Amino acid sequence: MKFLCIYKPAKKEGTPPSQQEMDQMGKLIEDWMKSGVLLATEGCLPSALGARVRQSDGKVTVTDGPFTESKELVGGFALIRVNSKAEAIERTKIFLNIAGDGETEIRQVWE
């Protein structure tokens, strides 16, 4: 089963990780890639470089960043392959232990 894990950090946007966090995350990524659990992962650049595109009643609106609701900002994502939603949750707990406070939405990918 594949799951998309969408990370929304509690840290202020643009706050860089510590060297220790980078080292720990690098090891986790390497281990999960080697084991076949992690299929892809990337972090997002600041919302000031992004845009939101919405459609409502056929009208399209484009809003350039930065976006003020930082708790809603996606900081990055991971695509993982695991045996169950429960395993995806357990892996996410491991990730959050390194990444710090925030929220990760887990969504199963249609296969």
Task: Supply database-style keywords.
single chain; globular; Alpha-Beta Plaits; four-stranded antiparallel beta sheet; 6 strands; alpha+beta
Report on the architecture of this protein.
29% of the residues lie in helices and 35% in strands. With 111 residues, the protein is of the alpha+beta class. It has a single domain (2-108), classed as Dimeric alpha+beta barrel (Alpha-Beta Plaits, 2-Layer Sandwich). The protein contains two helices and six strands.
CATH class: Alpha Beta
Strand order of the largest sheet: 2-5-1-6
Low-confidence stretches: none
Order of helices and strands: EHEEEEHE
- DSSP summary: helix tally: 2
Distance between the termini: 8 Å
The gyration radius over C-alpha positions equals 16 Å
Average pLDDT number: 93
Q: How helical, in percent, are the residues?
A: 25-40%
Strand content is 35-45%
| CATH architecture label | 2-Layer Sandwich
Secondary-structure-based class equals alpha+beta
The total of beta strands comes to 6
